[in-house]
Design goal:
Mean pLDDT of chain B: 92
CATH topology of the largest domain in chain A: TIM Barrel
Largest sheet of chain B: 5 strands, parallel
Radius of gyration of chain A: 21 Å
Largest interface: A-B, 23 and 27 residues
Number of helices of chain B: 11
Strand order of the largest sheet of chain B: 2-1-3-4-10
Shape of chain A: globular
Number of domains of chain B: 2
Oligomer: heterodimer
CATH class of the largest domain in chain A: Alpha Beta
Mean pLDDT of chain A: 96
Number of domains of chain A: 2
Order of helices and strands of chain B: HEHEHEHEHEHEEHEHHEHHE
Number of helices of chain A: 13
Chain lengths: 439, 308
């Protein structure tokens, strides 16, 4: 499709530098970067003044629920929420029904992704049915372009099995990712273990449950030499462990979520199950440590853990409700807030776009993935036009009606956020224009 | 709290009349929703409602729509649509009454025990029973004595604090009354983090008992004694049970309470349960007046969750 756009007057955020220039997009790729570029009659001019223009975001942690959970989200609806949030590519988590633990299910999700408004890649399950008992056919999924494997939602509890999974993954040159919570320590708990959980009478999920498994995984990965990605870290000590491992040269990357960067456990005192999530919202000290990690690089990326749940499953007593909250649509504003006054636009696009694209190897075309563009690349002539225009000063109050997900379990409803997505271009197409879905 | 105690004392009078019924809540409808097994709490709430002339809708969860997969929210909204004025809720999930209070439009919500969180009426029963015993001993009227009789008393709560909603409500109530609360339990049955709680954790149970004015013995659930939290019930009894030997350390004027149902021989020895210092029977008798007071005050006050 021969569409062309001119992003006018924004601050382009390159990997190392920034400059106020126009960006011309034609036939899916960047056709010009420079001052006062001309637009012909067929070119749509998009105002980017006062905004940052950078690579479209890549989310490595999206629960798109299809197949099996279509009452909560579909690939199409999750993609719309993602595009509104500035994302150009999503990594679909494998805890679908059935689980994405074989080529057939992976192929189905990839196919649904091709019909959606952005690029969808799939994380494969490490074990059959995510049951943590035997290895899933990782090679047949890798042949479809799967580069990251995880049983997310449930960590691999059996250390011996995790060792085998890492050894097998190393042979395939793929990334192993883990949801670190030792279930014998988490003990079916529903919020952070603290004096507050004791007072509220809710079973706690201690920070230790996460830290014990982070330690185990780091030691295994160090010994085996596999690339390890630690999902949604939530405690100060987890980050200390990662920092020390990186200093030793362990191949580890770490992600944090927008909610762990901005919300604390005190919200659970409302017993509103919208605040129930695994790992749980922690104490303020942890938030401070995660934010520091985001600035100093011990945290590599921000990923949403976007987890839609239909009201009939989420609207239950706190202890019984499923964990998880929406995240795709507002991650950018929350990340910008978490970076704080010391935050630079370069770091913002690094944690939301460049590093995640690098981890799952989306920076170059992979013919096996079929049809997807390259993400997280330079903003230069000839590159695929996956671009996000972020207005750091726009203020919006989140409303239920503005949510594009099928589910409505957003903890941000009613909050005023600073920073909003103005335009999202996916493979050269304006999917979001002036904050509204155009497709 | 003083108001509810005094109203309960007044309703206690009704108990002693030949016609044990007052027309206070005539025409009001109280729904009792018990999503967890309970005999005494449910019966005493329902009896209390009937003594106040309210109509009682009793939902037996085992044979209800809940069994057919209806959610708590729909169950409560359906029942409210039938025009009820109050919901008495017992649920295994902490905070369920708070959620229900958000979901209903006008009905009042009374917490009859939620998970490990709170069991406010039970703590009020205990405080009322103890106040009456203290008043009798001092030769004063309990009604109208406020909380003065509790000033500076030592309360020792023994047993499974961690999993006890009664303990949480008692700690709040006795502290509010001006008493000092000490808890004693094996390490696994203490709250995992009691920072900020107005309690002292006993280093030595026997020393704590020697100083105690009031001893609250909690029920020890059998499943906790299977090696999951303590190695065996036998070992629990030996270390934290109120045995005859331990009870002999108590002063003659100490008082013993137990929220029931008691497991004689586990958390409390049979002879101790029958000791004149033990108030268990009077606690049961105070169940109805306290719940009458709770219903009466709830249905005549502003809407909120009454958690103690």
């Amino acid at each position: 499709m021969a569409e062309s756009y001119l992003l006018r007057g924004g601050t382009v955020v390159h990997a190392q530098t920034t400059e106020v220039v126009d960006v011309l997009v034609r036939e899916g790729v960047i056709a010009g970067v420079g001052t006062s570029l001309d637009a012909d009659a067929s070119t749509t001019v998009l105002d980017a003044s006062g905004c940052f223009v950078g690579p479209a975001f890549v989310d490595l942690h999206a629960h798109l629920r299809e197949p099996g959970g279509e009452e909560a989200e579909t690939v199409a609806s999750g993609a719309r929420a993602g595009a509104l949030g500035g994302y150009g590519a999503l990594l679909a988590m494998p805890n679908t029904t059935p689980a994405a633990d074989c080529a057939a299910v992976v192929a189905q999700i990839l196919d649904l992704g091709r019909k959606s408004c952005l690029d969808v890649v799939v994380a494969g399950a490490l074990t059959v049915g995510r049951a943590g008992e035997r290895l899933a056919p990782m090679a047949e999924m890798a042949a479809l372009g799967v580069t990251l494997f995880t049983d997310d939602g449930m960590g691999v509890q059996d250390a011996g099995l995790m060792r085998r999974a890492m050894e097998y993954a190393r042979g395939l040159d793929v990334v192993v990712a883990d949801h670190c919570e030792d279930e014998t320590l988490a003990h079916g708990g529903s919020m952070n273990e603290s004096s507050l959980s004791a007072e509220l009478g809710l079973e706690g999920r201690p920070a230790l449950a996460e830290e014990v498994m982070v330690s185990r995984d780091l030691m295994l990965a160090e010994r085996i030499g596999v690339a390890l990605h630690l999902l949604h870290l939530s405690t100060a000590r987890s980050l200390d462990l990662v920092r020390a491992a990186k200093a030793r040269g362990v191949r580890v990357t770490a992600e944090v979520t927008p909610h762990h960067l901005t919300l604390d456990e005190s919200l659970c005192a409302t017993y509103d199950s919208v605040y129930k999530v695994h790992p749980p919202l922690r104490a303020n000290d942890d938030i401070v440590a995660l934010r520091a990690g985001l600035l100093d690089g011990s945290v590599d990326i921000v990923a949403t853990d976007h987890a839609p749940h239909a009201p009939e499953t989420k609207d239950r007593p706190f202890g019984e409700a499923p964990p998880g909250m929406l995240g795709l649509q507002h991650a950018a504003a929350l990340t910008w807030a978490a970076l704080g006054p010391e935050g630079e636009p370069k770091r913002f696009f690094d944690v939301l776009a460049r590093r995640p694209a690098e981890i799952v190897r989306l920076r170059a075309h992979d013919p096996r993935k079929g049809g997807q563009g390259a993400h997280g690349g330079d903003i230069a002539v000839g590159e695929d036009a996956n671009l996000t225009v972020f207005d750091p000063r726009a203020r919006t109050v989140v409303t239920m009606e503005s949510l594009a997900s099928k589910a409505h379990n957003s903890p941000y409803v009613g909050m005023e956020l600073t920073g909003a997505i103005r335009h999202t271009l996916v493979n050269g197409v304006g999917v979001v224009v002036d904050g509204e879905l155009a497709r | 709290m003083i108001e509810i105690l005094d109203v309960a004392e007044a309703f206690g009078e009704v108990e002693r009349r030949s016609v044990r019924k007052v027309p206070t809540l005539k025409g009001r409808v109280v729904a009792s929703l018990f999503f967890e097994e309970s005999t005494r709490t449910r019966l005493s709430f329902e009896t209390a409602a009937k003594r106040l002339s309210a109509d009682v809708l009793s939902l037996a969860v085992a044979s209800s729509s809940v069994k057919k997969g209806e959610s708590l929210r729909d169950t409560v909204e359906t029942i409210e649509a039938m025009g009820i004025d109050a919901v008495v809720l017992r649920h295994k999930s902490a905070g369920a009454p708070h959620q229900v209070a958000r979901w209903v439009e006008r009905a009042r919500v009374l917490n009859a025990g939620d998970g490990f969180h709170q069991h406010p009426t039970q703590a009020l029963i205990d405080v009322l029973t103890v106040r009456q015993a203290l008043a009798l001993r001092r030769g004063v009227e309990s009604e109208g004595s406020g909380l003065s009789l509790f000033e500076g008393l030592n309360v020792v709560i023994i047993g499974d604090i961690r999993h006890s909603r009664v303990a949480r409500s008692q700690i709040q109530a006795y502290t509010m009354a001006g008493a000092q609360v000490t808890v004693a339990a094996p390490g696994t049955l203490l709250p995992n983090d009691a920072e900020g709680w107005p309690i002292t954790i006993a280093v030595d149970l026997d020393t704590a008992l020697q100083r105690a004015d009031i001893v609250s013995v909690l029920r020890m659930q059998e499943e906790r004694g299977s090696g999951s939290f303590v190695p065996s019930l036998h070992e629990f009894t030996a270390t934290y049970g109120l045995t005859v030997e331990r009870a002999s350390l108590l002063r003659d004027d100490a008082l013993i309470t137990h929220p029931g149902p008691m497991v004689r021989g586990v958390e409390i020895a049979s002879q101790v349960a029958d000791d004149p210092r033990c108030l268990v029977r009077r606690q049961v008798a105070n169940g109805v007046p306290i719940r009458m007071a709770a219903l009466f005050l709830c249905l005549s006050g502003p809407q909120e969750v009454h958690d103690g």
